[in-house]
Predict the 3D structure of the following.
Amino acid sequence: MPTQKTISKDPLQFLIEVSRPYSIWAWAAIACSIAAQTLSTSVAYIFRGVVDSATQFSESGGSMSVLLAWVIAYPVFVAGSEFLYRASGFTGMRWVTGLKMTAYSRLFEYLSRHSFAFFSRRFAGSLGSSINNATNGLGALIESLLWNSMPTLIAAIVTVILALTTNVYLGLVFLFWLMLIIPVNLTYARRLADASEASASNMSKLRGFTVDIISNVAAVHSFARRMFEVKNIEEATAEQRRYALKSWVTSEILLLINSIFLAFFAASVVGISFYFWREGVFTLGEFVMTLTLTGNIAWVLLFIGSALNTLATNIGEVRNGLSDIIVPHEITNASGAKPLAVSKGEIELSSVRFGYEANVIFNEFSLKVPPGERVGIVGPSGSGKTTLVSILLRQHDVQGGAIMIDGQDIQTVTLESLREAIAMVPQDPYLFHRTIKENIRYGRANASDMEVEEAAKKAQADEFIRALPRGYDTLVGERGVKLSGGQRQRIAIARAILKAAPILVLDEATSSLDSESESEIQKALQELMKGKTVLAIAHRLSTIRAMDRIVVLEGGKVVEDGTHESLLKKPGTYARLWTHQAGGFLPEEEKPEEREETAVEEKN
């Protein structure tokens, strides 16, 4: 099994990690950007040469060739700068697009290894937004570094060097102002990064909240709560506005401070340069160069704040995305975990202890299911039926005891191999917004079209699938919304049939079916269950009466265990539940109006 990669939560460290496959492009883009800005800033030095050589030529008959050399150097420097910037663009785009792809893949891979509990505590839309924040933030961070922050820094360095080579005092003035403004900008940049992270975090929650409402729009309409949800969104967006304003105000304050610095800087440099020129310390060319450098450094001082603002905003967005996703995994493979080897399919829970925080579900719970036995699990709500399936699939880890499959503790085998060995048909089928064929093939990725269709036939789904406009290529909609409940359930059953795992878990697998369809699918399930170890959770007791054995749970304990017939012969929980269902519900064949509704549903 490949080694699972860790991911740093530090934005810059993560940037380095995902940039490694594109290091050649990265260094090329950086080198081109540095060279381009160096040439661009050095144009001021060309101005000095042009003015001084022109002055000498006009006043004392200086060399025309020297003057022409300086004149020609100007377009060469400008063209060279532009060419290098374009080269930086061509190499940089390969770096940016590559690292975004790598970052997205790694973040999703890390996210996918989180436990069921992790996802149950978070909005799906918020997690998707976090991946986007981190990925897009990284891309924007590189663009800001390459073509904004780094050129600004290079311009400042080259300007100071040129000023120092012209006059030490002038160079020190330039250096003084840079040393004054950079710490101030860095301080505000840190504040802005924190504000941007808070804003991005709140925006992720807002998107998750919005997706949650849209996903449950049927409930919103049926309970006439549209305006209630509109008001919720208005309140959430108002809060987001407060976060955005705080971030923006911090940015504007920094730009205002830089503007004040710029005014005093320009006045001091121009005044000193004019004085030196009047006193004959500067040549006219040096005076022109100083004015040009002043313009350059003014641009640096004005936009260094903007560059750091952008950088801080990007870092805040990346930090938010990483902090939401890069948390320790709750369910992981043990060190040296090996694939589960299932030869018989025996399941044994031994002295299992498990609970959700203070809510204890199982305490010293034990249950053994021999190979190939079909066991029905029943009991009132809260008895532990669903939890039993969750800990078997290691969606949660037990806090004591052990769960064994063919003598192997499931906490010592790989998660993938454990879940490969178990086929599950849940009460609420998991369907993707993909074609019916793709949803069924999810059970076995390399299955042929013929095998997919054969599984659908066994699940009594082939007929309604072929009646659809595009047959097996029909898109089912988000979570299968375009299909009826019974149709979704049959797709899920077909997927489990195709998986052909040695252990089968049925969680109310026929709960959404009418009596006629249930009867047909029960036959398919009987065929599917042959040679497999089966755990079938049921609320509708008629669906498990033919099981080899029925286990009744109550309060996290096994209170009854036996066949349907044997359990009915003694007063107890199972007999009480059976009597309640038989007396409280009419058999479906006695309700023709329900059969008509189902027929219309199947036709649609």
Observations:
- The CA atoms of residues 240 and 548 lie 58 Å apart.
- Residues 583-604 have pLDDT under 50 and may be disordered.
- The chain has 19 helices and ten strands.
- Residues 11-325 form a domain with the ABC transporter transmembrane region fold fold (CATH 1.20.1560.10).
